[in-house]
Amino acid sequence: MKRYRNGEIWDFEHEVAVPTNRQVILGLDGGTTSTVCVCISIMPFSDALPDPLPLLARAVAGCSNHNSVGETVAKETLEQVMADALSKSGSNRSAVRAVCLAVSGVNHPTDQQRILTWLRDIFPSHVKLYVRNDAVAALASGTMGKLHGCVLIAGTGTIAYGFTEDGREARAAGAGPVLGDWGSGYGIAAQALTAVIRAHDGRGPQTMLQSTILQTLGLSSADELIGWTYADPSWARIAALVPVVVSCAEAGDEVANKILKEAVQELALSVKAVVQRLGLCGEDGKNSFPLVMVGGVLEAKQRWDIGREVMEFISKDYPGALPIRPKVEPAVGAALLAWNEFMKECLQEPYRR
Amino acid sequence: MKRYRNGEIWDFEHEVAVPTNRQVILGLDGGTTSTVCVCISIMPFSDALPDPLPLLARAVAGCSNHNSVGETVAKETLEQVMADALSKSGSNRSAVRAVCLAVSGVNHPTDQQRILTWLRDIFPSHVKLYVRNDAVAALASGTMGKLHGCVLIAGTGTIAYGFTEDGREARAAGAGPVLGDWGSGYGIAAQALTAVIRAHDGRGPQTMLQSTILQTLGLSSADELIGWTYADPSWARIAALVPVVVSCAEAGDEVANKILKEAVQELALSVKAVVQRLGLCGEDGKNSFPLVMVGGVLEAKQRWDIGREVMEFISKDYPGALPIRPKVEPAVGAALLAWNEFMKECLQEPYRR
User: Fold this and answer.
1) Of A1, A120, A220, B42, which is most buried, counting CB atoms within 10 Å of its CB?
2) pLDDT (tens digit, 9 = 90+) per residue, B231-253?
3) Cβ contact, residue pair A178, B270, below 8 Å
């Protein structure tokens, strides 16, 4: 990404002729690998979502998790990707009504407040700003902007996040590999690597994972696997081995099957913890609620379908859980969320208009 | 540590007057936090160890694990600490008969060969050189230089390493936290941190670890624990929480007790895997063999004695296991090992002398 001196990011604004009645919303999804910003146009006081969505522009940048890249780079990345999306859509900041920034690494109100503070500096004071954990955008991408129900994300990491209709929220997992995200892609693959070492040194049973993983990585012995594992701290690199584990399980390997079954239980447990705490299932446990499922681990590309198994597990306890596979990306979810919240605030505060 | 230009490390040698009949051995223990080198004097062709040991000097430097600090720094650190020990003992390289370098991160013959190659450049060609995993020095520190039996190390990390009297060797664990070293100090503490998160988000039972760990770390909520965990990648920083887990277990906390019991099983399993593969217990399982136990996790400073529990577990299967708590440090173990091997080679190769 091109780096600008302070302010230059917005130089394009002097050159665009924005239609006077244009009103837009920005939705951002900032994950650990990339950041996506979409710009959609809105019709104020219309309460139904147009179909197709009036998506004006989409821009992509690098990582914007402040825990990974530091605050300065994270800020610059986010500001740049918003400017790109606005520029591409032929708009400027005066057309913006609301921004929803959904970013990983927002685990605490202090994280949220810090990001809100500098977002406040970029936009005029009447612009509505929302800062959320990226899981919230994933939920909104399945519910078309409504914060109700539960989302389960299982990619490299995993998290379950839920909302009641009256605005209470709860999460489970999402604490990273050291703190027990055992159903994540990283968790599954690390268990498989561990099984290889344990079979090799006599602590565990023999498994097809030994030859399959070593072959996949081009290694000649389990001892070399130790060097491979610590040569690069990227969690995604390890999580990329999930399809190998699934293949071994499909071929009947018991160790691989056990790893996947335990991952299914862990993922279902995260959802149950959220549903339970929020009472999403009602008192009799049968109320219906949306359950949005997102992430590579839950997308069945093979016969052993982790997502389906998780859903079966959850349905036993909560027959009202309605599985949803989102049709739009999380950045659009963030934009829809901003739209929804913006509309609610407009209706509640007519005196301000 | 002072950095020298190539060769300057050995400048002191021109200034020492070494007694012509002096013969010394260097033992090095290179761990992930520090490197210790001892210099002991030897009497050639004497087969009993003198008591007390003729320890001439001891020098300490930083980390020399090439996986952690890179090859260049590791080499420089090792060369410097050897020069310091020789200088302090009033010796130089011409007095050296053998060197045993026991260093963490030696997991594969290629690691060993690489280190041997540059060690070869430092010393005259008649000097015997031995490069070993640091676990081997810990074993030798308990057996006074003899490579027979099994050592269990449980500090920040854990490994079990064993030798038969005829020179076969085997190891279990020692593959780091990603690859299933679950009985290590890091493993125990990470399980405890995970239990705090799981109790907080509803996936796990309530536990005394929640308030105790947060208080110890000066944090006000479990959410803050996520930031604390990933703020610093040091495994030792997390492993330092083991005494808190032990205290909670002693106070009757079930979650903490379960974590410690599982760690005991894991540690015992590592030893059993080594004993089994080497047949150290003989065919009837009752042969006696030394079992050297080393590391903070196995040193009982509290009532809940992990080392004793591990030993009880092992004794059930192998009544001949003879527990040894070393009285000398691993660097001395490395020196004794070099001495032992040097004597054996002298006896086998009289024509070379």
Assistant:
1) B42
2) 887 888 999 999 999 999 999 99
3) no
